[in-house]
Amino acid sequence: MTTGTFRYADPATINRSTTPFVKSWSKVDVDYSSFSRVSVSKPVHDLRSAVESSPSDFGIDVSGFALYNHPAKETSFTDERAIWSGYYAEVEALLREKLPGIKRVEIFDHTIRRNNGSAARRPVQQVHVDQTPAAAATRVRRHVSPPEEAEKLLKGRYQIINVWRPISHPATDFPLAFIDWRSTSPGDLVPIDLLYPKRSEPEDDGDDRGKEVAPAEETYPKTEGYEVKGETYGVVPNETHKFYYVKDMKPEEVVLIKCFDSWGEGLEEPWGKGKKGVAGWTPHTAFVDPATPEGTPGRESIEVRCLVFYEDEE
Predict the structure, then answer these.
(1) Where are the compositionally biased (Basic and acidic residues) regions (predicted)?
(2) Whole-number Å distance between alpha carbons of 49 and 72
(3) Is the pTM of this model over 0.85?
């Protein structure tokens, strides 16, 4: 176990307007938000030890996350085309192996984060959930064709799962922490618009992978040149939150993080058909582990976001 200081959305600075750029927002290309954050110190439990002690207490539908030892053939993650053509297939195979009943997987996005000064994406210290129910449905309609097939799939069970692993060395620096879904409540979640840089034709093909450029610091508070292309959940503090992490997580290990489930407890039409006891979301964040040795290499990681569709119920 260790202790972390976690940066939550400050409820007093959240704007719940539905008007773009008035409603609270975060930027996808830099760790900056229109709202303030509050820091809360919390104990962080080691997931490996917890799973060894009580395996049935954890899992993608139970706690909202799952840890596996599953080495990847792709190891450098420097060639975007190799990631798309090779690693994506590895991710789909992993999901089909670990999650029974899958009939279709659509991988729509990945992000590589490196904790160094030149990286376009770096670890984010903000407790969040990647997608709201509305954003999840939008993803289905954006990435599944023809449109009638998307509408059909929206009527069944589907999830968005983030497949996360370190690159090249253990993630000792800025490890990832996730909150046990059972320790959260719907009132912890605040819809936040996600701003993407506008891209000119022919660059704007709807796909941002491999096009990330770190913005200049003086542009962080500005919204010119950005557009709303997604919605995430910010998370406000709750003393019941229980955090886990994988100490010195190795590149051979992978964590599945549930961002959305149409069967998640409490969901109602049009977003889903909630089932009691099924995890609906997993708040997560990078954090500073005070036990990190001086001189530890900066964290490098890849996260792959997947739409996962299941066979229809009998």
Answers:
(1) 208-220
(2) 23
(3) yes
| Cβ atoms of 8 and 237 closer than 8 Å | yes
> Starting from the edge strand earliest in sequence, which strands make up the sheet with 253-261, in order?
65-69, 253-261, 158-166, 300-310, 102-114
Supply φ then ψ for residue 86, to 5 degrees: -110, -60
Q: Residue 276 has which token pair?
A: 């009691």
Per-residue pLDDT of the chain in tens (314 residues, 90 and over written 9): 999 999 999 999 999 999 999 999 999 988 899 999 999 999 999 999 999 999 999 999 999 999 999 999 999 899 999 999 999 999 999 999 999 999 999 999 999 999 987 787 889 999 999 999 999 999 999 999 999 999 999 999 999 999 999 999 999 999 999 999 999 999 999 999 999 999 775 555 556 555 667 788 899 999 999 999 999 999 999 999 999 999 999 999 999 999 999 999 999 999 999 999 999 999 999 999 999 999 999 999 999 999 999 998 74
The Cα 70–Cα 253 span in angstroms is 6
Tell me whether the omega of the peptide bond preceding residue 202 falls within 30 degrees of 0, making it cis.
yes
* 145: helix, strand or coil: coil
Number of residues that make up the chain: 314
